[in-house]
Each structure stands twice: as structure tokens, then as C-alpha cells.
Design brief:
single chain; 4 helices; 6-stranded mixed beta sheet; disordered N terminus; globular; alpha+beta; 19 strands
């Protein structure tokens, strides 16, 4: 009973503390109806209703920079609105492993789309031999994996006839500030997430989630290398790019993804795992992201092309639009975002 009381006291303190960070007192209630039409929201004296409905107290304070705050923001449709600005540290987990030195070592993961045994694969002898059989020259005659460490802004030195396992240099101390619309509204057309640089959302653990990782078969866009190269992911489905860590597979449920793909030799131990029914975080358009099940425990159904739908959620038991992790795809991110995005989604300091 004491622990339960302490939880609610801490949650209340966080709500009150965030209230101090508000940029103005005339703030709107988080809308329970999603609409593409811009509204003039009424003033509200009770800040806690906004903040609790936003679930900001669910963010892991150990990985945050300060407290989330409400800020004015401009959406891509030029509408002035309010965003929740959340600051997180650049690499909140002990990341890796990524590229193995030889075929006898075990590295990270990658979604392989070559001809032989495509799917989510561990970076080990079996994968590299399949890649060689598919014509990708990724190991030398001694069994060493062709490797490159990218250190922007200098371009990596790569032989255009070879395929590489790629890692990126870490830049400790970076601060990331994400702006997520507080009042989600539908855009005229969805934003697809086929580019690895696109931001899908932010988990409550403090991990950014990005779009589809580059295709092995098609090659990395703009990279001076042949098809077959891969920017390796670690066992939690993420890696470093531009100096900081982000995931391409929703890390909070990745161990279930590994099981579904018959991967048992590795596991994600650095991100606390959630059940498929739990709220994971927010997409960059402000709509929530859940696991592959509804919050009341049944598999999600009637999903649209973005892997979202209207239905009861943790904070809106009647209905709101929300996304689900894709239960049928190892890269389980939503396929697109239906809502308007902030013009400035990410600021790096």
C-alpha cells in the first residue's frame, strides 16, 4: 500500500512540476476527437487534465532531459498549435553488439531481403554464407566480415564492389528534443515511413523510433558501396546514426518479435519489455502507439494501411485513433503516419 501511495505522490509531483514549464496559462484540453480541421480551443484552468490525458508521467525520468513541457509549434499544414516537447539523452542504453569481426562471431540483427532465407536474421555465419550465395561479397577468403565505421561528416572509405557491415561513431552528450502535437489531427494524406531517417515516434522509455532500415538487396541510398551492405542493428533493434541511438524495430516488444522469427540465441536485455497490450509511446503526429493487441487484451483488428484504427485506449475508453505494432512483420513499426506533423520534429544540441 505504501508503494502505491508513493507512485501516486510521485506522479502528482511530476504533473505539478511540468505545469511550471507551461509557456502560457490559456491552454486547451487534449482533444478526444481527431479532426483535420483546425479549431480554436477554449482556455483551461486545470493544467493537470491536459498533462494526465497526454500520459507525460509515463516517460522514464532517467532517460529524460528535464521535464516535458508544452510549447507553441507550427504544423506542416501551417496551423499554429501546441506540442509536447520531450528531451531525451542521446543513447540511453548500453548499445550493441553490431558487426561481428568474423563469421565465427555473433553480431547484431538485420532484416535480410535477399533471395536466400529472407527475414529477420542474426549476423552470424549462417546469414553471411546466405549473402555470399546471393552474390553479395561481404566476407573475405579468411572469413573476415567487411567492416566500416562511419564517422560523419567524413565519408567512409568503401570499395564499390564489396558489401559491408556498417557501424556509426557515437557522439556522447548529445541532447535530443522531440516535438509531438498535443492535439492530433489528420493530414490530407499519410506520411509513409519507408525512409530510415524518418521519425516514427518516441517511446516512453526514451527511445526514438525511426522508419524502415535500408534494403540489403537494393542497397543503401547514396552510399558508395554495392548492394548487400547493411547498417547493423543490435539485439534491441536499434543502432547509432548521426551520433545518437534510435530503433527501427519497436524495442519494447522486440523479444516477442525474436521468438516469432525463431531467434533464440540473442535477446534484448537493455530495454524493459512490455506486453503486447501496453501503451508504448507516441507517434510524431501525436497519436499513441500500442503493442499488437488492444489495451484490453485482444488482438488488434480492422487496421488501416498505417496499422492504426479507432477504438478504446488507456486514456480514452470510448474511442480514439491509435497505432499498433505490426504483429505480422519483424520490422513492426507503423507503415505510415496519418496525422499532421510539427514542422520542427527534432532539435539536436
Amino acid at each position: 500500500m505504501k508503494a502505491v501511495h508513493l507512485f501516486f505522490v510521485n506522479a502528482l509531483h511530476l504533473v505539478l512540476a511540468i505545469s511550471i514549464n507551461l509557456e502560457a496559462t490559456n491552454l486547451p484540453v487534449r482533444s478526444t476527437q481527431t479532426t483535420p480541421v483546425a479549431h480554436s480551443y477554449p482556455a483551461l484552468a486545470h493544467f493537470d487534465k491536459i498533462l494526465i490525458n497526454s500520459g507525460v508521467y509515463l516517460f522514464n525520468p532517467q532517460n529524460m532531459i528535464g521535464l516535458p513541457k508544452l510549447v507553441k509549434c507550427t504544423l506542416r499544414n501551417k496551423v499554429e498549435s501546441w506540442c509536447m516537447e520531450v528531451g531525451v539523452i542521446s543513447t540511453p542504453i548500453e548499445d550493441g553488439p553490431y558487426c561481428p569481426a568474423t563469421v565465427n562471431d555473433v553480431g547484431g540483427l538485420y532484416p535480410y531481403d535477399g533471395k536466400t532465407n529472407p527475414g529477420l536474421r542474426v549476423l552470424n555465419r549462417s546469414l553471411f554464407e546466405d549473402m555470399e550465395a546471393d552474390g553479395y561479397d561481404i566476407i573475405d577468403d579468411e572469413g573476415n566480415v567487411h567492416f566500416v565505421l562511419a564517422a560523419p561528416p567524413e565519408p567512409p572509405q568503401m570499395d564499390p564492389d564489396l558489401a559491408y557491415c556498417i557501424e556509426t561513431q557515437k557522439e556522447p552528450g548529445l541532447k535530443l528534443f522531440y516535438r509531438i502535437p498535443l492535439f492530433p489531427s489528420f493530414a490530407d494524406k499519410p506520411t509513409d515511413l519507408k525512409d530510415a531517417s524518418q521519425i516514427v515516434g518516441l517511446s516512453f522509455f526514451g527511445l526514438p523510433i525511426n522508419g524502415l532500415p535500408p534494403s540489403v538487396a537494393k542497397g543503401i541510398p547514396g552510399a558508395p558501396t554495392a548492394p548487400g551492405s547493411m547498417p547493423a542493428l543490435d539485439w534491441c533493434g536499434g543502432h547509432l546514426n548521426e551520433g545518437f541511438y534510435h530503433s527501427h524495430i519497436i524495442a519494447d516488444v522486440i523479444n516477442e518479435v525474436l521468438k516469432k522469427n525463431n531467434i533464440h540465441e540473442v535477446t534484448c536485455e537493455n530495454v524493459p519489455q512490455k506486453s503486447d497490450r501496453e501503451l508504448i509511446g507516441y507517434a510524431m503526429d501525436g497519436f499513441p502507439i500500442y503493442g499488437s493487441d488492444e489495451f484490453y487484451g485482444v488482438p488488434a483488428f480492422n487496421l488501416d494501411s498505417c496499422n492504426g484504427h479507432f477504438g478504446p485506449t488507456l486514456f480514452h475508453h470510448w474511442s480514439e485513433y491509435h497505432y499498433h505494432a505490426d504483429a505480422n512483420n519483424p520490422v513492426n513499426i507503423p507503415k505510415c503516419l496519418r496525422g499532421e506533423l510539427a514542422l520542427e520534429q527534432l532539435r539536436v544540441e
